[in-house]
Amino acid sequence: MGLEQLKESAKSLITLGPARKDHWIGLRTAVGVFAPLIFLMAIDRLDLVVFAVFGAFVGVYGRVDGYWNRLRMQVRSSALLFGVIAAALAASHLWIVHDQPELKAWQIVGATTLVAGLCSVLAGFLRLRPAGSLFHIFAFAAIASISNPVPAWQGLLVAVLTMMLALVIGAAGALGQWSSLWQRTPLPPLSDNVRSAIWWEGLFYILTAGIAGALANIVGSRLEAGHNYWAMVAAVVPLVGHTTKLRMRRGIHRVLGTLVGLVLMALLIVLNPPLWLLLTLIGFFQFMAEMLVMRNYFMAQIFVTPLALVGVSVMSGLSTALLYDRMVETVIGSVVGILGVLLGSWFGGIKRRQAGIDPPNPGKQF
Q1: Residues 312-348 pLDDT 10s
Q2: Cα–Cα distance measured from residue 121 to residue 231, given in angstroms and rounded to the nearest whole number
Q3: Backbone angles phi, psi at 96, to 5 degrees
Q4: Alpha-carbon distance 330 to 232, whole Å?
Q5: Radius of gyration (Cα) for the chain, nearest Å?
Q6: What is the DSSP string of 25-92?
Q7: Is the peptide bond before 130 cis (omega within 30 degrees of 0)?
Q8: Residue 93 in contact with residue 156, Cβ under 8 Å?
């Protein structure tokens, strides 16, 4: 890498992209996750927090202009997320062997790998944005890993109610704007190139998530790191982007942003704030993540890291072990993801030469 490339890479860490009314999506997602968490604390049911957090992911799919268009996107994302959460609960109750840690680790990786590929393809055909299956990987693996899951109906009820809240918040701005409420943008039909690209993307999600999870089990276990699915999440991060350069940059930003985010998380562990403040911080971190994710992925990760760690440790308590696990698994996953991008670029070059056209990119065509 030359000096100019190093300068460009360093500059990308502090350069903000153009604003796109990010404060509104940040506010909607922050309220969408904070309100259910405070309610669960009030009724002393923090064992259901994880279902509220993952149900609130529907809010992330609200970065769409036009209230009808947004509702369409969020209803579709709700259906897919509900299916993932239901499958995770079923796996945890009926299939995962929780009292055999080694077997459990491989069961989680195997099932989550299938979810990675299947949800990537479904997200493509449903035209979901953000694209890919990152949120579905995270939700499925985290819920399936719970050793003593709550009754399935309770988890699903909390998830559904949180999703409904996200839909209401997403449509709340339509009050007083009835004339534009029903205006919709028809989705163009998917071309053969885009359909092919969606299937190829699904294959690469399977490969990167599966390899990252396997390495996390083999290498991560020797390094005494848990949470193998964090590596799987990190591995698919670089797969989103219009160019190889941007995809690789996302992988690097993921690692560097996680490092800085871990410093912020360490400060929280030292301060050990009361529960109500932790839940408030989850809302704040969600707001900042959505404010920055489209403008600077490195900066967004600074807030995504404590958001994820606090979200999964509210019940068990903050622990320094989480810091080590997050770093090890993120490095494993990001390396695999970047190698997957390079492999995809090489493969795309072959396909392009064979067809004599630019490789299909679903993100550019809808």
Answers
A1: 888 777 888 889 999 999 999 999 999 988 887 777 6
A2: 20
A3: -65, 130
A4: 8
A5: 20
A6: HHHHHHHHHHHHHHHHHHTT-GGGHHHHHHHGGGGGGG--SSHHHHHHHHHHHHHHHHHHHHHHHHHH
A7: yes
A8: no
